[in-house]
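User: structure tokens for this one?
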Amino acid sequence: MDAQLRRALLECCVLAVLQEGDSYGYRIVRAVSPRIPITESTLYPILRRLETVGCLRVYTEEHNHRLRRYYAITDSGRARVREFLAEWEQAMAVCAYIKSTVPNTENEGSLPS
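Assistant:
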């Protein structure tokens, strides 16, 4: 998969998880991983980038006598998800067109009737 496409998909998956509620790194990895492989070492740069552009905010809370960083989606993050989905619809329309121009390979090699 193209690196830029993968990055966009991962960012949107992270934001989608946060639309369900505030969360922390390990829980985000567990929620995203069944859909697209991600590790914590991949996640944290994504979270920092999303925070820098204002798509999420970070706060800390104590958990088992330790501070845990939580991530919350912002209105800007929600707008980014909507923009991604609109762009994805356009991309799927282009994909459908491209697929329609590719000859059917199922019958390749068979003799004409």
